[in-house]
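Forum: Protein Structure Q&A
Topic: Joint prediction for protein chains with partners

I've read a bunch of threads here and the consensus seems to be that you should model interacting components together rather than docking separate models afterwards. I'd like to see that in practice. Below is the full input, 1025 residues plus whatever partners are listed. Could one of the regulars post the assembled result?
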Amino acid sequence: MEITEAILLTIATAATPLLIAALGELVVERSGVLNLGVEGMMVMGAVSGFAVTQLTGSPWIGMIAAIIVGALFSLLFGFLALTLVTNQVATGLALTLLGLGLSGMIGESFVGQAGIKLPSLHIPGLSGIPLVGRLLFGGDPIFYLSIALTAGVIWFLFKTRAGLTLRSVGDSHSSAHALGIKVIAIRYLAVMFGGACAGLAGAHLSLVYTPQWVENMTAGRGWIALALVVFSSWRPLRLVLGAYLFGAVGILQLHAQAMGFGIPSQLLSALPYLATVIVLVLISGNRRLTMMNTPASLGRPFVPDR
Amino acid sequence: MKKLIAGLASATLLMSMGAAFAQDKSKVCFLYVGSKTDGGWTQAHELGRTELEKALGDKIETQFVENVPEGPDAERALERFARSGCNLVFATSFGFMDPTVKIAAKFPDVKFEHATGYKAGPNLATYNSRFYEGRYIQGKIAGKMSAKGVAGYIASFPIPEVVQGINSFLLGAQSINPDFKLKVVWVNTWFDAGKEADAAKALIDQGVDILTQHTDSTGPMQVAEERGIKAFGQASDMIAAGPKSQLTAIVDTWGPYYIKRTQALLDGKWETTGSWDGLKDGILTMAAYTNMPDDVKALAMDTEAKLKSGELAPFTGPIMKQDGTEWLKAGEKADDGTLLGLNFYVKGVDDKLPQ
Amino acid sequence: MISLTLTKRPQHSSLFSALSPFIAFGITLVFGFLLFLFSGKDPFNGLYIYLVKPLAEVWSLHELAIKSGPLILIAVGLSVAYRSNNWNIGAEGQFVAGALLGSAIPIMFPTLTGWFVLPLMLILGMIGGAAFGAIPAFLKVRFQTNEILTALMLVYVIQLFLDWMVRGPWRNPEGSNFPETRAFNPSAVLPEFLPSSGRAHWGFIFAILAAIVIWFVLSKTKKGFEVKVLGASPRAGKFAGFSSSGMVYFAFLVSGACAGLAGISEVSGAIGKLQPVISPGYGFTAIIVAFLGRLNPLGIIAAGLVLGLTYLGGEAAQFDLGISDKLARVFQGVLLFLVLGCDTLINYSVKLSFGPRAASGKAA
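Posted by a regular:
Agreed with the consensus. Here's the joint model:
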């Protein structure tokens, strides 16, 4: 019982940064923009969150700084891809390259410092409930934020007028434009939301997961987040499933090793990726479902003609 | 444009002057596989380089290139070293072996030293550290400190150096508690704080009450601190990440070796060697023994002293292999050749060695 | 309020098409100048070391060919995929797959010698890359699975497979158990093409040849027209009688084969054996090269050389000036942004205006 609870908690920690970064990218892609720079924005969030925490002594201020830096950094992508209509794939990749270099530079003087962890919640009675007590009532603040964000994104996308507008921009920017919707402005906001989420996800790494700064500490998690968005076929709830599935396979393979199963560790490490491919194939087999959710204008630039 | 050309011309002039100027001092160059602030492997070499500068800075200058991928990029960087007047080059990663061999053959007047490899030449020496001696001390401490008699080992890749460490740790622990068990998790990375931390959590959840790592980040140490269990640091002193957890750490101290070899170069006495130094040579040191009772600390210090004096060698029989067959007879010592190609576990490891 | 307005040019400007790389390069120079100035280095010397010195020495030109070769070869293949609207971002995996299959000959038959060994390896390399590229193509055609994701996921899978192979079945039996295969015998090593002056191998020649062939196919043949039509509009392509699923396979097989050839050339020509990591991200960097070259194979040659130069220059600046390698990477990122941004001028005229926007519609 105790070990199940511990495993659940570990999986939640592993899944949270993936979920948050992917939620942001989901909104970006729903608006018709493909930003492959998640890894770069995430690592910028991680370094700025850590740096500000060390300078101010408050991980809360650090977390907020990470969100702001993520959003600002995404503006660079926005300016190029939206205003100057550069190719989104290449611009996103360049953003990642820049983010990895810049974060290394900023973080150089913070390497090796012991970080400050964002305090976990603790509710004496409730946290003691077996199995799920610590998960539901004893987690870290960003874990709760990830749940709130999921609910918020679902509500926003499917229950509000603004969400409808955003989706219509993603589905057909020209008809949205014809209806008088400010396509570029909406896409800018979406891109910044994506940046903010990636920044927060980065902060989770440097303030909760492993409170420290090391170069390239995202270690490919931004790419996984991108993959999860497609895996979810742009549905937030399925995204939660994907992030937790991915986290679970990664954690359980470590447990399988610790229990002494003699399976090649490379095979176990490859499992999450293979699982993603397989599930993706299963989902896209249902053609109608996938087509329905794919933003039709994804990755296509828009220039208002006047 | 004219200005630019003028500037470039003056720059060229300056550079050629600089080159002429530099010939007075010997140049020692370092090739790093990681970032010089990685908090682990490369940082230890970088510390060695700064120590070297401190000791011999009036006679030599040092230069380095960091984050060099293993392969053609390393070969290019080494060629740059040789062409830029480096007299002595330290290539500090196993994967730099073949590039170093090639460039050393091409530039016979430049001395090369390659860390942890096995290919030498007339102007190519190899050097390595007996990290496993430190693991043995850790094992002794673990044997005393672990209530459950099970330790967790976060391992990077199944190369001989890591297998030596696992075996040595377990032999140390079994010398205290013959039933001691070891759980091993391979993370397939030298450096991913998140993944290493996940492995640490998995091991703790599986019931180990002491942790050791052969990966370079402080991720596992932080987890140990948070979960209130004891752990050993790796490559550098990790006490900042685990003030209440760290028992000791294996600290790579390359400085003395770099100073010794550079001095030999200056004296004209540099010769190719294959050195595999240990605790006694100061190439690895143990971080302060903390968070343990005095008797364990005394035992650890005594073990360290015996390893230094040569009274004790971790791989001394009787030792059984994992499958129960005999590896070393009573009193028999493993030779370095076997150790450098070690590819099996000793008895008591709860894992199948990836082949 | 300052605002930027883009107006699509009636046809793309050949003036800016030619000028834009120079504008970008000019701004990069200014940026680099400031960067060196602020980090306390002589900017003229810095720029010289970064951009000129690597081209001023013969050995360094060879190194440039070694570094740019795989980038160009992969990017040229990708240009076919991207022009036809097939988003293969898994070239890194196809690179590894090609290297693996091609290396099977010298590793499994270490004593095999003869003129046929190398051609066989190269062909197997192309087959390996193409076959691995065919997986996302098949999934896209058969199940409509998004190829960006599957291609990317498969990169991780094949990298781990390579890792397992060199630590397990293919490990050098005489290599003290270290994770690498035995060294290829001399007849399995791709020769240098100017051995007297440096170590650049035939991989670079393959890249240039591939660029020319694919340029010819894309611009002069019916297949090239098909790529263009299907890339612009799958529906129009259908009316013209082109098969869009055939094009998916074509795109992935060509780009996979190019990446595979790059992989086996790198392993055979530059490394000489297999090891756990054989590419410092060539497959991903090549995506940027492809776009910098505007998906034109000839432009890609130039782009690959420029990007290769920034690697060499970054290393030289690190060594000669003690400039952090992170700074070099930032410089690279900025260069990419500027080139991408300036290319906007080709298709759009940009107007910077001050004061309130005169645009129609609701106020911002």
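Strands of chain C lie at 3-8, 348-353.
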